[in-house]
Design a protein that fits this description.
single chain; alpha+beta; Pnp Oxidase, Chain A; 9-stranded antiparallel beta sheet
Length: about 210
């Protein structure tokens, strides 16, 4: 018989008042078994007309203040975030049959944090941030390769490639976090945390 916590959920849910701690535990479990990119997530945004779009991005950092990813600020996702900062993330780890959904508002990371992460990237990735006009129409692939070569010549020193002003990070500050565990016969287990006006987290169980 599986162990249960005080809410009669599987013990993997633990008994934590802070969902970031539970996220950390589940994320570390996913890292042990996911074949590729346990930090991959589906990011859902919507423009000012409310038309949604979703895509996969990679989580690069997380803490009590939110979940951080980096991108071109002229991309479609960034344009939508500027128009409508409300967004959602979804992690789905098949190897452990778990899912986490996060809802909140997105804010720009600090210049210092953006520089720190950018400088940790591979040389080719830093050059790519300059060369790619992300989400804009590309007439032919050769045009992109020419831009890559142009910026390699401009910044030949692999230890000194400045961060483009249009490339930075976004931080989703959560207001809701839901943890989902696959259950037999579709009787899943769900635990939802919601942040109140005082910044404290409340927990409720959800029907599958």
């Amino acid at each position: 018989m599986n162990q249960k916590n005080s809410l009669d959920l599987d013990i993997c849910f633990k008994d934590l008042e802070n969902p970031i701690e539970l996220f950390n535990d589940w994320f570390n479990e996913a890292k042990k078994s996911e074949i590729n990119d346990p930090n991959a997530l589906s990011l859902a945004t919507a423009n000012k007309q409310g038309i949604p779009s979703a895509r996969m991005v990679l989580l690069k950092e997380y803490n009590q203040n939110g979940f951080i990813f980096y991108t071109n600020f002229n991309s479609k996702k960034s344009t939508e975030i500027k128009e409508n900062p409300n967004a959602a993330m979804c992690f789905h780890w098949k190897s452990i049959l778990r899912q986490i959904r996060i809802v909140g508002k997105i804010l720009k990371v600090s210049e210092e944090d953006a520089n720190l992460y950018y400088n940790s990237r591979e040389y080719s990735s830093r050059i790519g941030a300059w060369a790619s006009k992300q989400s804009s129409v590309l007439k032919k692939r050769d045009d992109l390769f020419k831009e890559i070569e142009k910026y390699k010549k401009k910044y030949p020193n692999k230890d000194n490639v400045p961060r483009p002003s249009h490339w930075s990070g976004w931080n989703l500050n959560p207001s809701e976090i839901e943890f989902w565990l696959d259950g037999k016969n579709r009787i899943h287990e769900r635990l939802k945390y919601t942040k109140n006006q005082n910044g404290k987290w409340n927990r409720v169980l959800l029907n599958p």
